Amino acid sequence: MKVVITGVTSFVGYTKSYASHDYDLRKGFALNVEPLGAIFSAMAGVQGAVILTGTVAEYADSDQPHLETETCAPAMPYWLSKLMETLYARQLSSHYDVPARVARLFLPFGPLDAPEKLLATVITSLREALPLELTTCLQQRDFLHVDEVVDLYLKLLPDLPRSLFEIYNVCAGESPTLREVILEFAVILGVDAARCEFGAIPMRTGEPSVIRGSNEKARKFLQWTPAPWRETVRRWLAQV
């Protein structure tokens, strides 16, 4: 195995209409997948490595914790483009003999999160006493603070000489319900939980009931141990 002296990390992706069948798969391929050929070719010339950002949505819906070894069956075109990215990276890694890692992100949160996302919206509503109509919020979700994500990316660097290509789930390995997380927000902020109108609106069609991952591989090979979700929620609320 060559010594890794430089590398590139890719976070770029075409995401317009990412959760819809209206997603433009051709554009997705052009931006998410096709550039990898030039990236791997360049890294081969400088004894480099490539780290890519994948997504939990590459997997099929399941109530069981996702494993890196399971068969993927993404439900939407954007997620298919991300799986294509992963598979193409595997091919290119072998072809150019360039070490590569795919960090398959689950549900990160933290500072600078998009204000329209659910958890950020809930925090704003609770703090500003705004109406807060919610679904039953019994969906289970594997949330992970962005600090834990950054820590895993840093731990990928010394792992690169170990093997040519690996996929790692970047997840907490816990799956509290959305209701549990939101009620924890209310406790931390000292807000009356009765303001959370659970069941006031329906769930989105096709929304999975469980998103949960196994992080055993990352624990074993990267010695990465993410903090418990309640601890990271308190950390986030102290930051926003």
- Note the overall shape: globular
What's the overall average pLDDT, rounded? Answer: 92
Cα-atom radius of gyration: 19 Å
Number of strands: 8
**Termini separation:** 44 Å
Descriptive keywords:
four-stranded parallel sheet, globular, 39% helix, alpha/beta
Layout of helices and strands:
Blueprint: E1 6-10, H1 25-33, H2 36-45, E2 48-55, H3 77-96, E3 100-105, E4 107-109, H4 118-127, E5 140-141, E6 143-145, H5 146-159, E7 165-170, H6 178-189, E8 210-211, H7 216-222, H8 229-239
Parallel strand pairs: 1-2, 2-3, 3-7, 4-6, 5-8
Helix pairs in contact: 1-3, 2-3, 4-6, 6-8
Description of the molecule:
- There is one protein chain.
- This protein has helices at residues 25-33, 36-45, 77-96, 118-127, 146-159, 178-189, 216-222, 229-239, and strands at 6-10, 48-55, 100-105, 107-109, 140-141, 143-145, 165-170, 210-211.
- It is α/β, with parallel strands linked by helices.
- The strands form 3 sheets. A 4-stranded parallel sheet has the order 1-2-3-7, sandwiched between helices.
- Helix 3 (77-96) links the parallel strand 2 and strand 3 (100-105).
- The protein is globular, with a radius of gyration of 19 Å.
- It starts with 5 loop residues before the first strand and ends with a helix.
- Residues 1-5 have low confidence and may be disordered.
